[in-house]
# Entry
Amino acid sequence: MIEREQVLHVARLSRLRLGDEELDTLAGELSSILDHVDKLAEVDIEGVEPTSHVVPLENVLRPDEPRPSLERDVALSQAPDPEDGAFRVPSPQAEA
Amino acid sequence: MADLQLLAASGSETAARIASGNVSAGEVLDFWLERAAGDPLNGYLWHADAEAARTGVSADGGALSGVPLAIKDIFCTEGVPTTAASKILGGYVPPYTATSVARTAAAGLPMLGKTNMDEFAMGSSNENSAYGPCLNPWDAERVPGGSSGGSAAVVAGGLAPWALGTDTGGSIRQPAGFCGIVGLKPTYGAISRFGMIAFASSLDQCGPLTRDVTDAALLLGILQGRDEMDSTSVGIEGGVSAPSAERLDGMTFGVPRGLIGEGMEAGVLARFEETLIRICELGGEIVDIELPHAGHAISAYYVLAPAEASTNLSRYDGVRYGLRASDEDLLSMYEVTREEGFGPEVKRRIMLGTYALSSGYYDAYYGRAQRVRTRIVEDFDKAFGLVDFVVTPTSPTVAFKLGEKTTDPWSMYLSDIFTVPISLAGVPAISIPAGLAEPDGGGPELPVGFQIAAPAFGEQKLLEASYALEQAIGFDGSPGLEGGSP
# Structure
């Protein structure tokens, strides 16, 4: 069971501004999904290594040579608010 | 009539006709552009015109040159809108092209358009698209499956000869099964993921959706290979060639009986059992096997995939591309942009993933799910020590109705019960049509998929066995290939 407060906390971590109704809906849905997921506790994982990746690869290297990348104006072409060759964002501080 | 011949032809048959001078590449492209433009299924999110279709396409690409391809809208295409069916990428025009698309263009395949999908590939019905659901060409009241629903629907509906999709937990195989076509998820690492908009990076894999097994093999041959832009790509040693096997002598097919039965429709089970008999008739042997942990695959997957998604999707923050929905302070801009830009299923998965990775819950959820994944990998290792292939139905049901599973996320997730374990193991699998079946509760017959999985990088053997079985089944149903429009 996941409480509404916890949902709000996770929403903040996720950078999602959820409305009241959405928070309630998600609290119910996430609880129900986690009830199923909690069945993973039945599996014996004593001494089992985690799998993060299935292809046995390590240290894939290439020479560290400079090469052309996206031109600045191309990289900025999709930005909502580019200015002076940079990405502009609103101030981190709310206006008083 | 040339048009109807083109409509019914596979990709390789059309390529052969172009090569022999029977029809020109220009005529083929015009024909398919016109078919795609008349899309009654909402299968396409963007349509190419003749000029855009040919942009960057090699005029002398080789054996398959001139056969146009539909591309899931998850592949970045330079100069062409790419949305991953999300509002947050509305109007986004990528400055570069995905390796898979570059490879098909180099092989001379024009691009017909970008196909509909579940937003960021999260879904099993295509109902999570921000641009409206795609319809199943067999029955417009039913879903085509997902997330590559558009790619499956346009191929089955006679709106494209073949298509590219992506598969994270079943997103190629399940829609291929629901639409009565062939869908191949290659081994993780067989094909570059560069330029494929990321959902769950340890699972995402590109693959073909085609009319037949030969086409799947030929497209895989073009797509596979190491790419220095994706350090996890390794390619398939020796490449891939068109399959020709007629028999299955000496081949063993494992059936995980413990997984099969519960929650399955009677018609799907009947087609599955018939297909096992066909395998025996072709000289193959059926062996009962166990995948003891596969029953936990959906639970593990719905920790791991959302966890990876929650980190991958943190890039959509209104700064560098896509939607920006507010210009208050920075934090509000992030939060409002993401609130308005993402749909409900994407938010659900971001929340689930963030929760599973959050302090105090990481070990209990993410760490545990990774270890259960190891158990599932071991299950498949053991199985492939005993048999050449593992076979299951592709899905427990035929295509379900629009809206039928949207109110209960878990019931939707369970539609991938046979495809997800294979994704977690990273091995290749194909869905081929096994015939038609009535849904439980009655109604017109709909396609049933038969899934075959093979050991990692065993694609050639998988394709040979699939080809032999495909010839024996002789499935020729397709809703869009007779009389014109589906």
